[in-house]
Amino acid sequence: MDKLAPFQTYHNPSPNQNPLTHRPKQTSFNSLASPSLALAPISPDTAPLSASPLPQFQPLNPLKDVKTLESVKIKHAQILKTRNSDSKAESLITSYLELGEFRTAAMVFFVGYARNYVAWSSFLDEFQSFGGDPVEILKVFQELNCKGVVFDSEIVTIILKICIRVMDVWLGLEVHASLVKRGFELDVYVRSALLNYYQKCWDVDTANQLFDEMSVRNDLLWNEAIMINLKNERFGNAVKLFREMQFSSAKAKDSTILKMLQACGKEGALNEGKQIHGYVIRNSLESNLYICNSLIIMYSRDSKLRQARIVFDSMKNCNVSSWNSIISSYAALGQLNDAWELFHEMELSSMKPDIITWNSLLSGCALNGLDREVLVILHKMQVAGFRPNSSSVTSVLQAVIELKLLKFGKEIHGYVIRNGLNHDVYVETSLLDMYVKNDCLPISRRVFDSMKKNIVAWNSLITGYAYKGLFHDAERLLEKMEEEGIRADIVTWNGLVYGYSMWGDNEEAMAIINEIRNSGLTPNVVSWTALISGSSQNGKFKESLEYFIQMQQQGIKPNSTTITNLLRTCGGLSLLKTGKEIHCLSVKTEFVEDAYVATALIDIYSKLGDLRSGCEVFRKIKNKTLACWNCMIMGFAIYGLRTEAISLYDKMRQVGIMPDSITFTALLSACKNSGLVTQGWNYFDSMKKDYSIEPTIEHYSCMVDLLGRAGYLDEAWDFIQTMPVKPDATIWGAFLGSCRIYTNLEYAETAAEELFKLEPYNSANYHLMMNLYAMSNRWDDVKRVRDLMDNKGVKSREVWSYIQIDREVHRFFAWGKPHQDEGEIYFELYRLVAELKKVGYVPDINCVLLDIEEEEKEKVLLSHTEKLAITYGLIKREGGAPIRVIKNSRICSDCHTAAKLISLVRSVEIILKDGVRFHYFRSGECSCNDFW
């Protein structure tokens, strides 16, 4: 008769207990009970036999005075003869372990000691603490198994778990094979252990195959199979198994439901999540706080805040995690007003906000670009008595990076050091990133040298060097990284690609792309997007589109960043139709709801004369970021739609979005384009008083432009003199432009003198002064300025206008090569001028700043590039589409008047973007209300 190693069970777990730690009544390998066997003296070749059971393994060592192996063996023989208690067996095991007799200790444990799972865990821990290798335990098991010892299901389950721990692929197979040969009826725990063994030591497909072959499956096995698939990211198969489980009448464990809901949230599987929610309701599991919290998170991850709120409101007993889940959901999706309302409700409830609640608000604002709001929340959090932890600091550093608040970032660095947070790898990496992105590479290098380095830190610094064009330093750092055994990943290479591309070295950028392939990696969407983005930022718009075509040929699909950069490229080339095609692509790829893509779409439509489409995109954005609001306000501003711009700003404040410096630039632009001096002053004063935003040179320039255009030249002059910052070229340029409008030569000459120093090679400044002198018939001064340009070698900027017909761009130059259809254009233009004169058009010859006869001046007016482009648009126009013209300098008053009348007599909409702003002509009126 086969020998049978004993095992007794000391308790039966409840159905809700974890089967991996609480064992039910065991099932033997055969139908016989485990008999007590005779004991014999032990040797390395003789297995110790059974003793009476113990509730758990507690190492007691009455043999502590015995120092030699021989004396331990003698004491072992005495214990066997006297049939002493199992506490002596425990002591015996400990003594063998102390002497390094690991094999013998394992023999005693297997057949000379009655075990339970707590005892097993204690033994394994002690075995390893003395330096024993768990593989030795498996060897003892194999030896006993080969000698015919039949182990019960508990021992088999334990052995399979050790196989998993040491990744012994073949012993598990032997165990399974022996079970099959013996025709042993596997109990549920052995089957569960086999499932885990196959998925850990082989693969999930093998585990799934084993499960499919099981004829009898109970609740434990169904749940185990689902969890195995979830752990291996086989979400589809997990859902399939979950559905099949319902038909088999098996019941899902709470932990399985939790994991399924988490997977649904991660995968964006809302429909499957709703079905599981239905299962929760049918089985009356709504009282489980953890399941409800997971439901809230699942719905919020799919932007279904209404459903998440319904779950939260239906909870009878909420814990802190419940409140934090719903608050973080609103904050993450940019619904800060609702998040704060819930926060205040939480304060009034029995549950008080904790550090996680505050961090949820911080990270939510950081994620949605509400960087100033992050700093406000940080202050409130400290006032409430909470000290920022590593998670808080990481969110705040993101805001510091975006706001370029280097000084404040250094203060945070000090706080991190004082509070010992610099040992957190995420904090250290965020600090490094903050210094890199604030152009403090020497400090970032010191942070890097003192930190525990990971691949993210290496990549951040290498990318920082590449962005600054310090490619030698970047490549040296790359070599050092590889010397330290850290292999460059795709992020490392992509940083170099972007750096070279941004600095205009596309040839070297492409060489890096090839290097990626040589290293065994594959250039991904980020690699190609880096090329597209770098080229776009470097003004190489044509190359940017060519790289996108190559990317598509490689079979790589664009992401939201790719789309955003392509839209920027279309804006740079003023390709509205191509921009609309990219818009269609963003809809097909479901990126149109991405905040950055949406903002880029608003920007391109605003800048390319299709404000209506821009408004439509803005209206459809569900979670509007500050950037979206700013872009739309600026769109209204450049069209002179002051009422719409101001109204939109008021609405933005109503929904709880805090303005930033860009918001006020847009508002001041709306005011200066409409002559709203009082409101402009109010907004300018409000920046610092209400929002603690220090005005930048851009804001001062807007104010000078606003005052000057409105005719307050003296006030504009005084404003310049009292500014706390030194006036730059934008300030003097705005002032000179105003002087031209009101023909104030005294102020103009002072402004021009400053501009000639600041921008000695900007031809626009010289031409402005020549225009002013010509308007005053001071032709000698015109010649003097022209001679000054010649002496300095300043070349006049080429003046042009263009219009896109179908896919072709037609350019019209003030001088140089004429358009191929010039004859047809002038013929139509003469007819058009005749029509205009019938409705009151009188050529404004003051716009011709040449010392020639009046009749010749009228002819010169006809050659203005915007007139030629508009006329060509009329010739080629199909249907009722607007005519869109781009001009690289300011439109003159004669062309402005002509465009208004053309829109009237030909019943056409004309959208003209000049060097400063948009003009929307319709029915004889312009959107600028003649204030330009």
Topology:
Elements: H1 69-82, H2 86-98, H3 102-111, H4 117-129, H5 134-146, H6 153-166, H7 169-181, H8 188-201, H9 204-213, H10 219-231, H11 235-247, H12 254-267, H13 270-282, H14 289-301, H15 305-314, H16 320-332, H17 336-348, H18 355-367, H19 371-383, H20 390-403, H21 406-418, H22 425-437, H23 441-450, H24 455-467, H25 471-483, H26 490-502, H27 506-518, H28 525-537, H29 541-553, H30 560-573, H31 576-588, H32 595-607, H33 611-620, H34 626-638, H35 642-654, H36 661-672, H37 677-691, H38 697-709, H39 713-722, H40 729-741, H41 745-758, H42 763-775, H43 779-792, E1 800-805, E2 808-813, H44 822-838, H45 854-862, H46 865-876, E3 883-887, H47 893-905, E4 910-913, E5 918-922, E6 925-926
Parallel strand pairs: 3-4
Antiparallel strand pairs: 1-2, 1-3, 4-5, 5-6
Report on the architecture of this protein.
- The chain is mainly alpha-helical.
- The chain is 64% helix and 3% strand.
- It has 47 helices and six strands.
- A six-stranded mixed β-sheet has the order 2-1-3-4-5-6.
- A hairpin with a 2-residue loop joins β5 and β6.
- α22 runs antiparallel to α23 and α38 runs parallel beside α40.
- The N terminus is likely disordered.
List keywords for this structure.
932 residues, six-stranded mixed sheet, 47 helices, mainly alpha, elongated, 3% strand
